[in-house]
Amino acid sequence: MLKIYVAGKLWDNEDRTKVEKIDKFLQNLGHKTFLPHRDAGIYEEGMNPDPIFKKDRDMVDWCDLMVAFLDWQ
């Protein structure tokens, strides 16, 4: 079992759905995953971003592998 950070664009529900499908696929293979918007939260205007960014950064150190979905326009 690998610990995998699943990264990708998270701006809207369509983007999040794409990375959630990748996350589910990896979990079905028996891996433990970190999905930023699910596990660290989503930044909204007016929030202090530090706790979210700290969790994201900590999980980069935690993971064995990072999978990045590069669906950027």
- Overall number of strands: 3
**Strand arrangement, major sheet:** 2-1-3
> Total domains, how many?
1
Report the end-to-end length measured between terminal Cα atoms: 33 Å
Average of pLDDT: 92
H-E order = EHEHHE
Shape: globular
Rg of Cα set: 12 Å
Major sheet characteristics: 3 strands, parallel
Q: What is the SS-derived class? A: alpha/beta
How many helices? The count is 3
Helix content: 40-55%
Uncertain stretches of 5 or more adjacent residues: none
Strand percentage lies at: 15-25%
Explain what the structure shows.
There is one protein chain. By secondary structure, the protein is α/β, with parallel strands linked by helices. It has one domain. It contains 3 helices and 3 strands. The protein has helices at residues 13-28, 36-39, 50-62; strands spanning 3-8, 32-34, 65-69. The radius of gyration is 12 Å and the shape is globular. It starts with a strand and ends with a strand. The mean pLDDT is 92.
Short key terms for the protein model shown above:
alpha/beta; 73 residues; single chain
Explain the layout of strands and helices.
Layout: E1 3-8, H1 13-28, E2 32-34, H2 36-39, H3 50-62, E3 65-69
Question: In short, what is this structure?
Answer:
The chain is α/β, with parallel strands linked by helices and 73 residues long.
